[in-house]
Every structure is written in C-alpha cells, then in structure tokens.
Amino acid sequence: MAGNYPGYEVCSIYGDYETTYSSKTFRAKHENKQNGSYERFTAKDKKVSHEPFVDKSSGCEGYKDEHTKTSTYKTGDKNGYTEYHREVKVKVKHVDYGKCNNNNKAKRSYYDSSSKKNNYKRVKWSYDQE
Fold first, then answer.
1. CA-CA distance, 88 to 33, in Å (whole number)?
2. Quick check: pTM over 0.70?
3. pLDDT digits over 21-49, tens only?
C-alpha cells in the first residue's frame, strides 16, 4: 500500500517578503501476514521561503529559506525491528547590511518600539493557515 498524503502550502506577506510554507509526505508499507514481517517507508519534504528574521549580531532584518528532507525506513518481524532515519536540512539566510542602520536597535521583527525608548514589548508572529 502506497500513497501520497495531502500536502499543504501557506503564504503570508510581511513587508516586502511573501513567506511560503509547504510540506509533502509520501508513505508506503508492505506486510506479510504469514510470517509477521513488515516494511514501512516515509518521506517528508518541507520548505519555508522568505521567512523574516533579525540577525542577532547586527540587528538587521532579513529573510531565510529552509529546506528539509526526511526519510525513514523501518523493517521488522515478530522478533524485533530495525529503523533507518535520514534528515538533510539546508538553511540560507539573506541580510542586506547596506540597507541596515546597524545600531542594534533595529529589531522591529521581534520587538515593537512604538511605545517608549528601550521599553520593548514582545510581538508574536501570526501565520494564517487557510
């Protein structure tokens, strides 16, 4: 039995960036009812594009891209099982230091400085999932 499971893709816009999240899953399995052995395989592919972040060392705003591929293979019988797991993750961060006012107070992505000076309040990200 094998199949593609419904993936999802979510987009949200923050400033100049359009953030995209997507995930896809593939699963397959085989069972032998006579001797009780089985095999299972799962593969996942997750992508995040243009997610805003703040560079901690400089306070500059930028965006990051992440791509994660995960695969799991499990085989076993009545006596036990063996599982193999592999994950590959690639992260790329983009920061334009030329457009940054590099004074370490430009953390608008994480803190809202609209009230008083040095009185920052935490702002939570909200990603609409439709």
1. 34
2. no
3. 888 999 999 999 999 999 999 999 999 88
CA atoms of 104 and 82, how far apart (whole Å): 50
Q: What's the rounded Cα separation, in Å, for the pair 116 and 93?
A: 31
Rg of the chain (C-alpha set): 22
Tokens 């293979």 correspond to what residue?
Answer: 73
* Calpha distance 4→7 (Å, rounded): 8
Report the SS3 class of residue 83.
Answer: strand
Token pair listed for 52: 């805003």
Note the pLDDT tens digit of each residue in 102-122: 554 444 444 444 444 444 444
59-85 in b/e form (b: 16+ CB < 10 A) is bbbbbbeeeeeeeeeeeeeeeeeeeee
Here the tokens at position 33 are: 């009812």
